[in-house]
Amino acid sequence: MITFPNIKINLGLSITEKRPDGYHNLETVFYPVALEDALEIRTSPDTDRKFTLYQHGMEIAGKPEDNLVVKAYLLMDKEFHLPPVEIHLYKHIPSGAGLGGGSSDAAFMLKLLNDHYQLGVSEEQLEVYAATLGADCAFFIKNRPTFAEGIGNIFSPVELSLSGYQIMIIKPDVFVSTREAFANIRPHHPEYPVKEVIRRPVTEWKDTLINDFETSVFPQHPIIRDIKEELYHHGAIYASMSGSGSSVFGLFAPESTLPEIDWGTDAFCFTGTL
Ligand SMILES: C[C@](O)(CO)[C@H](O)COP(=O)(O)OP(=O)(O)OC[C@H]1O[C@@H](n2ccc(N)nc2=O)[C@H](O)[C@@H]1O
Ligand SMILES: Nc1ncnc2c1ncn2[C@@H]1O[C@H](COP(=O)(O)OP(=O)(O)OP(=O)(O)O)[C@@H](O)[C@H]1O
Questions:
Q1: What range(s) does the GHMP kinase C-terminal domain occupy (predicted)?
Q2: Is the model's pLDDT at 177 over the cut of 90?
Q3: Which of 11, 103, 111, 118 is 20 to 30 A from 32, alpha carbon to alpha carbon?
Q4: Are 10 and 105 part of one and the same domain?
Q5: Residue 87 three-state SS
Q6: Do 57 and 36 reside in the same domain of the chain?
Q7: Could you identify the atom of ligand 2 that is nearest to the CA of residue 68?
Q8: Ligand 2 centre from 95 Cα, in Å?
């Protein structure tokens, strides 16, 4: 059985408080976008080992057991004593991009195992499992526009459709550690709450829908700021860094022609329609 884990972008991201447990409370809107990995599982004839991971496409650092798809499998195996599996993961989503690629793979693995082995686990319970694998992992279970608060795990649906808008996502050859990005931030409550700005037309988002990580990440990696400015220069209606970086997305009007921009050979670039 095969599935296609997609990315999220953050529409606004306010880091409001540092918590006693070291994590941060935040407010953001997650929006799913169809930039996808491919993830396949097959019951393995090799009963000597529980899982075999075959990786294709972009490389990911770490051992197979560090991969979030394997962690998701082992979590479900503990609960449901699953058969051994072959896992095929084709990585197309760049890592360290703020696009939630690893979290999405993990959440889709939970859903895939639930469907393939007919485990009958509810979406709500899958969200509980997902939340143990990563802060924004649970979002990918329902995978629809969502307002998130808490550490990014308390959800409410938002009435927002960007259907028809065109999107360009660029990730320069820069890796931003999520942990370090949080460590460099001074939490504060936003002047314009994300939940309110998101109700206004996209044309009004430019100076009010803010990703707080830009303040700390841009001075360290000016190339990310340059990309955002370039997107506005070429007609984006709204542009922002996603998550803790390093990718930047631009939204363009539904009827417009996307600009052709040379981002250099080291940058990753995705274009699509929402
Ligand atoms: C920045 C976002 O991309 C916004 O969507 C996410 O909150 C990041 O979520 P994520 O990559 O799933 O993060 P995790 O892998 O769970 O956490 C990485 C590290 O980031 C810090 N972290 C993460 C989430 C959060 N609300 N507060 C934090 O302080 C912690 O130091 C943690 O050890
Ligand atoms: N299946 C996976 N795909 C990508 N990365 C994975 C995976 N499993 C584990 N990782 C590890 O997780 C780290 C973060 O990868 P991820 O693709 O989630 O990027 P991110 O952009 O930091 O996501 P986020 O938006 O959640 O901050 C990588 O450095 C990698 O070592």
A1: 213-259
A2: no
A3: 118
A4: yes
A5: strand
A6: yes
A7: 8
A8: 5
103 is an annotated ligand-binding site residue: yes
Tokens of 113: 């195992």
Calculate ∠ Cα 199-166-105, nearest 5°. Answer: 85
| Token pair in block for residue 102 | 């690893």
- Whether 101 has a binding-site annotation, put simply, is yes
Same domain, yes or no, for 115 and 245?
Answer: no
Q: What is the CATH number of the domain that holds 267?
A: 3.30.70.890
Q: Ligand 2 centroid to 67 CA: how many Å?
A: 9
**CA torsion through residues 16, 21, 22, 27, sign:** negative
Please write the tens of the pLDDT for every residue from 42-78.
Answer: 999 888 899 999 999 999 988 999 999 999 999 999 9
What angle, 0 to 180 degrees and rounded to 10, lies between the N-to-C axes of helices 222-233 and 213-220? 110
Question: According to the annotation, is 35 in a ligand binding site?
Answer: no
- The boundaries of the domain holding residue 174 are 166-273
Instruction: Name the nearest CA neighbour of 100 among 183, 30, 22, 185.
Output: 30
Q: Residue 71, CB half-sphere, CA atoms under 13 Å: how many?
A: 18
